[in-house]
Amino acid sequence: MSDLTSLETDLLAQIEAASDETALEAIRIAALGKKGSISEQLKLLGSMSPEDRKTIGPIINGLKDKIGDALTARREVLKDAALTARLARETVDITLPLRPNPTSEGRIHPIAQVIDELTAIFADMGFGVAEGPDVETDYYNFTALNFPIGHPAREMHDTFFFNPKEDGSRLLLRTHTSPVQVRTMQAQKPPIRVICPGRTYRCDSDQTHTPMFHQVEGLVIDKTSTIGTLKWVLEEFLKAFFEVPSVEMRFRPSFFPFTEPSYECDIRCDRSGPEIKFGEGNDWLEILGCGMVHPNVLRMSGIDPAEYQGFAFGMGIDRIAMLKYGMNDLRAFFDADVRWIKQYGFRPLEVPTLFGGVSG
């Protein structure tokens, strides 16, 4: 009996002193395992007399249960201690500010914003969007647009040409988005009503010109379009884009090989202050070029000029973005300066709409 009492005292002391679950498991195996100290005591019952077995058997089984309960209780204590230590180790300071999410930090480039704005405006007037390749052939960039051989725009000082092919022909970077108009007329039957935004390229670089810039051109082909229709479309666009109640336009005769007659369009503005104000003042600002599509262009695109007519217009997206948002240097658009983007950029998910304001 004294041996069992000593064994109980020793095992309970070991259990109480166990510092982690690994040490506790070792004690359990040493006491209750196949060759454990209590298991060995149970094996001795077989060699005892019936009277001793009745007396000692319950004591040993009681010891087994007592040690099992002590192990379970200690295991719970160690688990709680381990969880408390882990929580202390992995504490998160919830007083720190959250990191800003991408939608609050990111910015839409002003050029992308302006393209969305003008697309929304022209879509409300029934215009679709057409696109074409940046690398063009001489035919689509010049010939199909009624540029005669020897026209200054074909020369190296204005156009980026690729090296000549074996047959002497050369590809080029398009100098305007007008080739998209030709491709659209070849692919679709009138009536046609599209705008063609995209990148264009010319050998020029200063405060208001860059070798790569953005243009948007519009094309309408049907049987009834007139200069009056053209004027209405441009007036409605300019009012919506600059978000003014009215604009006053002035058309000056000009020359473009692909339109006849051709015009430069000016709008009345006030340039007396730091910002240009449209719809007021006594100044005039050239904003775009336009005209009726030349019959030769219609004919080369497979459209009968005796049956159909139409008009086209084009403007620089970078230029109208500068005018609307007060930017004074075109080159900043392409510097990829994060500070500039944060100042002039637009928040994501602010989609331009005519009823909500195209500028968000």
Question: What would you say this structure looks like, in words?
Answer:
With 360 residues, the chain is of the alpha+beta class. The protein has 2 domains: 2-89; 105-344, Bira Bifunctional Protein, Domain 2 (BirA Bifunctional Protein, domain 2). It is 41% helix and 19% strand. The strands form 2 sheets. Strands 1, 4, 5, 6, 7, 8, 9 and 10 form an 8-stranded mixed sheet that branches. A two-stranded antiparallel ribbon has the order 2-3. Helix 1 (2-17) runs parallel beside helix 4. The longest helix has 40 residues, at 50-89. It is rod-shaped and about 130 Å long.
If you compute it from the alpha carbons, what radius of gyration comes out, rounded to the nearest whole angstrom? 42 Å
Per DSSP, what share of the residues sits in E-state strands of 2 or more residues? 15-25%
Indicate the low-confidence ranges by residue numbers: none
Our count of domains comes out at 2
The sequence of SSEs as H and E is: HHHHHHEEHEHEEHEEEEHEHH
State the helicity in percent bands: 40-55%
